[in-house]
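Collaborator request, handled under Task 6.
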Amino acid sequence: MAWWEQWGRDEEKMFEDALVLTEIDPNRFETIASYLEMPLEVVKHHYDALVHDVELIESGRYGTTDYQDHDDGLLSPETKHVEKDNKRGRPWTAKEHREFLKGLDEFGRGDWKSVSRKYVKTRSARQVASHAQKYFQRQDMENHAKKRSSIHDMTLVDDNDVDVNE
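Structure tokens returned to the collaborator:
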């Protein structure tokens, strides 16, 4: 394999940026070659390989990688917004709350990442932290017996305080 076929992510990113910046440049490949400090033939070969890969992907003959689990800035703001909307507002189940309490018992206050990872796998660390905040506010409230029942009233000692469908 030739050296130009072993480009790292940084070289790929520079190449992609140069492609965008030189889109209407009549000497596009010469400009890119100069920018990357690479021979013109290498740049043209890499471009042809990229076009070929795109054609394979668009024709369905080559699968794409699923990046759903990664939040490394590659998703557009619109995509991130849609993902957030899908997760927003889903109430906690009694089972999730019990798992939260077990995690709280093991890891204590503040280690929401571990609680999320080991106990409440259906929720992110941020969601667990938010739930904990509401839970502790509810526990600290005076006269909470006068308030309507909430999932935050459940404890590990007696998880039958709230009649919530799992």
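The cover message to the collaborator said: "The chain is about 55% helix and 0% strand. Helices lie at 9-21, 28-36, 40-59, 77-87, 94-107, 112-118, 125-140. Please let us know whether this matches your experimental observations."
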